[in-house]
Amino acid sequence: MPARIAVVALLLAPAVAAQSPEDERKVLEKSCKSGAASDCVQLAERYVSGEGAERNPKKATEYFDKACELRDAPACLELAHRRRVGEGTKPDVEKAAELYQQVCSWDVPVACAELADMLEAGDELERHLGRAVELHGLACEGGIATSCGRLGLMHRIGSPMARDDAKAAALFEKACGGGDLGSCYSLAEQLFEGEGVKKDPGRAVALARKACDGDHIAACALLGAALQHGDGTARDPAQAQELFARACEAGEPRGCFGLGELHRDGSGAKRDVAKAAALFRQACDGDVGRATSSPCSPPGGRESHATSPSP
Description:
It is a single chain. By secondary structure, the protein is mainly α. The protein has a domain at 240-311. It has helices at residues 3-17, 21-33, 37-49, 57-69, 73-85, 93-104, 109-121, 129-141, 145-157, 165-177, 181-193, 201-213, 217-229, 237-249, 253-265, 273-286. Helix 13 (217-229) packs parallel to helix 15.
């Protein structure tokens, strides 16, 4: 390096190093005011984290608002969340919904999914299933696996549209491939029963295992039933007992029911009729759905997997 350039670099280095967080903040404020959305976001994040500025939720929200005005989609999503829960501002669910709708119109699928969830639940906004279906559709097309799964469930139960098990299975397939474990479980149910798809117990077991390994408790009970009866896999009452116990402890009634059966029959667990009765009652109190051999069920009901609830 030439001596002259080296000297200049040495003279400039202390000035750069000496720039304080306050100086940096002032530079960012000026840039944000001039219309640099990314710098508005940087300021907001500093007020969120307390790094480079004192923590201040109100100021953070103000800068996210400024960035959103400059059409920064992530900033608008963060602002929507803050409006929704009242972080750094007064709660305003209607304004949050407007922001989600705005960002959804910019082809940001996660915003469509957030608004769809709100309209489907009906806890924060007036329930509107038709609009929720439209928004979940946009989100699903945009790659939001959970929205594909929600649409699948709507087709499976027949609300708000006519029931269509084949469409449900196709949506669960897409959602499961995208990592939605609940959809892997739902597809496994359909594959066990052959509802909307060709019956395939072997694949159903693989999907139930995948969901169970991801800590989807109902899937663990479903897998336990398959191992209990040898449906799509070799019978393994001992492993079934472990899965049923895990599910039952987590509050899944079908796990309690399956565990009760094992104790009643002395298969994979010590025969204990009293314990079986207690587990059946626990399952009954939790509603075992279509488990027709449950003490909750009327006589003469259709036989079904203990772990195959109505979706």
